[in-house]
Amino acid sequence: MAAISFTVIERDPNTKARTGRLLTPHGAVETPVFMPVGTRASVKGILPDRLRETGSTIILANTYHLALRPGADVVAALGGLHSMMGWNGPILTDSGGYQVFSLATLNEIDDEGVTFKSHVDGALVRLTPARAMEIQEKLGADIIMAFDQCPPLPADRAALEAAIARTLRWAKLSKAAVMRKDQALFGIVQGGLDLNLRLHCLEQLVQIDFPGYAIGGLSVGEHPDEMARFLGEFATRMPADRPRYLMGVGRPLDLIRAVAAGVDMFDCVLPTRNGRNSFAFTDSGVLRLRNTRHKLDTAPLEADCPCYACRNFSRGYLRHLFLADEMLGPILVSLHNIAYYQRWMARIRQAIAKGSLSTLLADAESRAAGECTLEESE
Q1: Which of 114, 263, 270, 375 is deepest in the core (most CB within 10 A)?
Q2: Sorting pLDDT into bands at 50, 70 and 90, what band is 239?
Q3: What is the pLDDT of residues 195-233, one digit of tens each?
Q4: Which residues lie across from 10 on neighbouring strands?
Q5: Residue 330's pLDDT band (boundaries 50, 70, 90)?
Q6: Residue 24 to residues 49, 223, 236, Cα–Cα distance (Å)
Q7: How far apart are CA 15 and CA 259, in angstroms?
Q8: What is the pTM of this model?
Q9: Angstrom distances, CA of residue 215 to CA of 162, 171, 200, 231
Q10: Long-range contacts of 168-172 (CB under 8 A, 24+ apart)
């Protein structure tokens, strides 16, 4: 029996969007879906039951960071990620390949793998496809990712081709190293914004045969409009019977654009990172809670939001928490932001079912200027 199964449920008649159901050993996931990021086995400040209340059904954790601290053997001894975190839903783990990009000043890449200088204690750490699979098996996630190389953008063709060659080599080695039958290994497509290179990488990955495919190497320097144009040409070239996962992308506008292009799964630190920095997502735009205009504001962050923060606290109180450096402020706004994202994904799924995603997309595009200002805070 396969570790996961994926079924397409409905298709939007005016876009390439679809809804689906992803079945995992720890439960079902309705797609399109957004996965909150718990890099170090914790969605910062959010208790698992509160996270579930937001509508979150699947979360992401990171192989590289957990390998450094507390260590894969420690996680395994504590029962694996599900038991250790107290989260009984599905979990996806990133292979650590993204850190090849994000921690480029601390690593050396060769055809066999990557040697990192640990950002924790400076010790040298070797990560290869086989080692990345070994760590992920000990972590015990439902979905694990092949080890890949993520090049920054813009990048010249030679750099993209070198990254693809390593990604394909490592994909084969990753699949060969997998031992557990209750984990699904996804392949990752690289190639920047070059459609032909992406198609070449995808073709080779499909021959290896994975139960799901991810699009890596986007939102790493290119303009969001460039990414949207590329996804519109590429996403539906991916196997129709497998989940399509866009890694590390998370503005609300980016999400609906990608869904309209045919993508099913997403993750991003944006809702929690910005929540910790006093930025709250709403349908009217992003609220900057440190602004003086919120000092005496008795309104919730969003009037129709059912999240714990909006049910119980005012903008004025939340502003006070941030100015007083009280940890409750980042917790509450992060909680609201995750809930906002999950309500957004629910609206997207409902619009697909009704055949009206193009209307919701047009509305999101009209509000894009307000959302784009968020990038100035990152």
Answers
A1: 263
A2: very high
A3: 999 999 999 999 999 999 999 999 988 999 999 999 999
A4: 19
A5: very high
A6: 20, 34, 23
A7: 9
A8: 0.95
A9: 17, 14, 13, 9
A10: 168/201, 168/204, 168/205, 169/111, 170/97, 170/113, 170/129, 170/146, 171/129, 171/146, 171/147, 171/204, 171/205, 171/208, 171/210, 172/208
Beta strand residue intervals within the chain, DSSP E? 5-11, 18-24, 27-31, 33-36, 59-62, 91-94, 107-110, 113-117, 124-127, 143-145, 184-189, 213-215, 244-246, 265-268, 279-282, 285-288
Q: Which residue has the higher pLDDT, 125 or 132?
A: 132
Given the residues 12, 148, 264, 267, the one annotated as active site: 267
Q: Residue 5 and residue 56: Cα distance in Å, rounded?
A: 19
Q: Which of 94, 148, 254, 264 is catalytic?
A: 94
Distance CA 182, CA 211 (A): 12
94 catalytic residue (yes or no): yes
Give the separation between CA 328 and CA 332, rounded to whole angstroms. Answer: 6
Question: How high is the pLDDT of residue 373?
Answer: 47
Q: Is 73 tagged catalytic? A: no
Which are the contacts of 358, defined by CB distance < 8 A and separation ≥ 6? Answer: 12, 14, 15, 260
Q: What residue has token string 């208790």?
A: 47
Nearest 10 degrees: Cα torsion 144, 146, 147, 152: -100
Candidate CATH numbers 3.40.50.2300, 3.20.20.100, 3.20.20.105, 3.90.1150.10; the one for domain 5-269:
3.20.20.105
**How do residues 81-91 score in pLDDT, each as one tens digit?**
999 999 999 99
The pLDDT, as a whole number, for residue 375 is 35
Domain ranges of the chain: 5-269, 275-377
Give the CB-side neighbour count of residue 311, counting CA atoms within 13 A.
Answer: 7
Chain segment 107-119, per-residue pLDDT in tens = 888 999 988 888 7
d(CA 71, CA 369): 43
Average pLDDT, the chain: 94
Token output for 236: 């539906």
Q: Phi, psi (5° rounding) for residue 279?
A: -105, 125
